[in-house]
Amino acid sequence: MEKMFCFQCEQTAKGTGCTACGVCGKKPEVSHEQDVLTCEMIALAKVLAEKNKVCPACVDLICDGLFTTITNVNFDGAKVAALSAKVREKRTEIAPSCTDLPLSAEELFHGDTNVVSLRSTLLFGLRGMAAYAHHARVLGKRDNDVDAWLIKGMAALAESHSVDEWLGLLMEFGGVNLKCMAILEEANTGAYGNPVPCTVPLTIEKGPFIIVTGHDLHDLKMLLEQTEGKGVNIYTHSEMLPAHGYPELKKYVHLKGNFGTAWQNQQKEFDDVPAPILYTTNCLMPPRASYSDRIYTTSVVQGPDLKHIEADKDGHKDFSAVIEHAIKLGGYKEDTVRCGINGGTTVTTGFGRQTVLDAAPAIIDAVKGGAIRHFFLVGGCDGAKPGRSYYTDFVRQTPKDTVVLTLACGKYRFNDMDAGKIGPFPRILDMGQCNDAYGAIQVAVALAGAFNCQVNELPLTLVLSWYEQKAVCILLTLLSLGIKNIYIGPSLPAFLSSDVLNVLVEKFDLHPITTPEQDLKAILG
Fold first, then answer.
1. What does the pLDDT look like over 337-378, one tens digit per residue?
2. Given this model, what pLDDT does residue 98 score?
3. What is the arithmetic mean of pLDDT over 51-70?
4. What are the phi and psi torsion angles at 216 (to 5°)?
C-alpha cells in the first residue's frame, strides 16, 4: 500500500511516482498535508468562481499555497497544515454553508489515467505561475487577469472536462503565464534596471560572507542594504546568479561573486561551509548536520527546526541574525576558489532581453553573412540524474558558428566553459533566471519579425531540461504560442499519460532527447 503519491518532479521514483518517501526528501505526512492544502485551495477557488468574485486576500493565499507545494520548497508539515487552516477559514468566511471539498486528497492524483494526467499538468503549471506571481507581488506588481486565472484554473481542477476542453484550458493558461512572466520582468527591471553583461568570479574572498540562494531579488536587495559597510560579503548561489547583471544590485561592492553550482550539489558544496545560507525560494534539500545550523529560510521556504525569518506588516525583513552569524563564523581564512563543474573559475551573465535586442542589428548581419548558422536555447532546471550530462556534451559539441542562449540553473552544466566568441558575442549568452524565458521568447519574436518569418521558421532550436513545476508552466507557454520541435529531457514527465503525450507530440512535435550527436545531426543535418 502506498504511503503517499507524488509525481510532480523529474526525479520521481522509478519514473512513475514516489509512494514511500519523496526522492526530494519529502516525507509521507508532508506530502499528505500538501495534498490537503491543494484541495482546500481548489475548494476556495470554486467558491470564488461560483460567486464571480476575485478577492485579493484569497488570491494571495492561493498564490502562497501553490508556491508552498512546489518541489523543494517546504518540508514542514505543521506549517503546511497551518496554511490549510487559513485557506479553510477564508472559505468558511465567504461561504459558511460550504463544508465539503469538491475534490479530496485521495482523489487528487487517482482516477482515470488521462483525466489525472491533464488535471495534474494544469495544477503543476499553476504552481509554477504562482511562484512568478508571488515575486511580482513582492515588488508591488499584480495583474487582474493573472489573479482571475489563478481562481479559474484552480476551480477547473474539480470539474469534468473533455480532453479537448482540458487542452484548451492548458493553452489558455500558457497565454496567461506569458503575461505573468512579463509582469515579473517589468517588476524586476523597474526595480533593478535592465541587466548588463558581466563576468562573475567563483572565488570566495577570505573573511565573513553569506550565501544567498533561490530566486527572490527583493530579499537579496534587503540583505545587501543591511550588510553594507559591515565587512560581510555576499555571494549568490544557483538561480540567484543573474542578480549580478542588475545595475541596482551590482552597485553594492560587497556583492562579490557566485558560490558553487546548481541546487542539487548543495549537500556537498555547503558541507562545513563557514558561512550562513539564506534560502529565499526553492530549491531546499534536507540539510546535513554539518551545516543545518547555518540555514536561514524566508518567505514560503521552511523546514523542521530551521531558522525562519518573517516579513513585518510592511514587507521588511530583519536579517541581523544572519549577519551576526556570518561575522561569528568568520568565513574562509584565505581566498578559496570554487570551480564550476568543468573547471572554470568565472561565469558570465547579464545578457537579458534588452541587451540582446540592442545587439539585434549586428546579430542579424552575422546570420545573413553566415557567421551565425543556428541558435540554440539550452536551458531549464538542473537535477541530479546522470543523464543530465547530456546538456554539457550537447553544448560542447555545438559547432563554432552557433550561439547558445541559456537561462535557469540548467546552465551550470556548461556556463563555466570557454566556448569562444562569434565576433563580439560570446557563444554562450546567459539570459537569466527561469522566468526570464519571457525575454527569450521576445527575442525570438523580434528576430522572426526582422527576418519576416514565423518563430518556427527561425534557425532556432529549444533544448530544455526540466525538474520542477516552473518548467511546466514555461513549457505550456511555449506550446500556447505554437512553438514546435522542442527537445525535452532528461526524461519525460511521469504525469503525462501515453495518450496525452501522443497528442502533444502530434500537435507540437515534441522530441525526447536522445544523444547529443543524434540530436545535433537531426537539427543541423
1. 999 999 999 999 999 999 999 999 999 999 999 999 999 999
2. 86
3. 96
4. -80, 100
Judge contact between 381 and 9, C-beta under 8 A: no
State the pairing for strand pair 421-422/425-426.
antiparallel
Give whole-number Cα distances, 148 to 145, 173, 251, 433, in Å.
5, 11, 38, 25
Work out the burial of residue 99: count CB atoms within 10 Å of its CB; fewer than 13 is exposed, 13-18 middle, 19 or more buried.
exposed
| pLDDT tens column, 7-37 | 999 999 999 999 999 999 999 999 999 999 9
**Mean pLDDT confidence for 101-106:** 95
**How far are the Cα atoms of 92, 399, 487 from residue 393, in angstroms, in the given order?**
54, 12, 15
Residue 15, by phi and psi: left (phi above 0), alpha (psi -120 to 50) or beta? left
Cβ–Cβ < 8 Å for 205, 271: no
Integer CA distances (angstroms), 215 to 73, 134, 352, 436, in order: 12, 11, 16, 11
Inter-CA distances, 94 with 82, 89, 292, Å: 19, 9, 41
Overall residue count recorded for the chain in this entry: 525
Alpha helices by DSSP H, listed for 9-76, are 28-50, 56-68
